[in-house]
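SAMPLE LOG
Freezer: B-3
Tube label: C17
Construct: single chain, 115 aa
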Amino acid sequence: MRKVHKMAAFNVDKLSLKELVDLESKVQKAIAVARDRERSELKRKVADMAETHGFSVAELFGGVRGRGAGKNKSVGVAKYANPENKFDTWTGRGRKPNWLVERLRKGAKLADFSI
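STRUCTURE (predicted):
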């Protein structure tokens, strides 16, 4: 059974905008770390289960790893945010999101959207 950590309760309604943005950034980073940790844990469990039954993961899944096979990919941390929706973010990698393309076309600068 998994341990559940109790967090101290605090009122986000009393935080300043800067404090909220800082908190949001920390939460996004914590989510990325937790996602990586759970992915690794699941991979280990699948490998253990396959081994218990006399198989390797490569035998069960044909050794195909999907896009970017062989690369260790990390989850990017958001660097830019849509001012109308702070949850609509972009890491600065890959294709620019439509909300950003539209604003840049209207003369905005990329730095205007930095988190």
